[in-house]
TrEMBL record:
This is Nucleotidase. Belongs to the 5'(3')-deoxyribonucleotidase family. SUPFAM superfamilies: HAD-like. It comes from Paenibacillus sepulcri. Transmembrane segments: none annotated. It is an enzyme of class 3 (hydrolase). Keywords: Hydrolase. InterPro entries: 5'(3')-deoxyribonucleotidase, 5_3-deoxyribonucleotidase-like, HAD-like_sf, HAD_sf, Nucleotidase_putative. Its EC number is 3.1.3.-. Pfam families: NT5C.
Amino acid sequence: MKFGFDVDDTLINLREHAFHLYNKKLNRQVALNKFQTLNMIPIHELFGMTAEEGKQMWNSSREEIYYSSCPPFPDAVEALHELVRQGHEVYYITARTAEHCERTKKWLIQAGFPVQEGRFYCGMSDTEKVHIIRRLGLDYYFDDKPAVLETLTDLAMNVYVKDNSYNRHVDIPRITNWDELKSLLPE
Ligand SMILES: [Mg+2]
């Protein structure tokens, strides 16, 4: 079967990684539980920034956020290797911008993810993901972002939301930890 995965905040803990970097860069000590209960994707409000300031902060920190030591979510690397071992196809579909695609692919490989030639898609907008997902004929797709998941409701496939504080209202099947992946598959 074919499995598709978003990358940021689906397979890797990018926002929390950025949260810790912001605390360090701004010499602040915003509590982790505030981050963990934030009901929106941008994190700038935790630091008292306006949307514009938040955008600037994100853009100027992006290299560091993307390419330093952002941890994969627990069991994500192992779960994807297990799929490959079982003969399944693993696809990555990330809306990171075009200039980050090559480095992101390399970064994923270095982080231990199984990335096969031709199975890494990058540089599309959130709303374009659906076209790639449809063309690939995926059997399963996982994403964290409500705006992306909303575009997928008409597809005849298994769509899951990767649990996060800002997507609890999304009423589709949910995966909280990647060690649950095995139990979702048919015997
Ligand atoms: Mg994401």
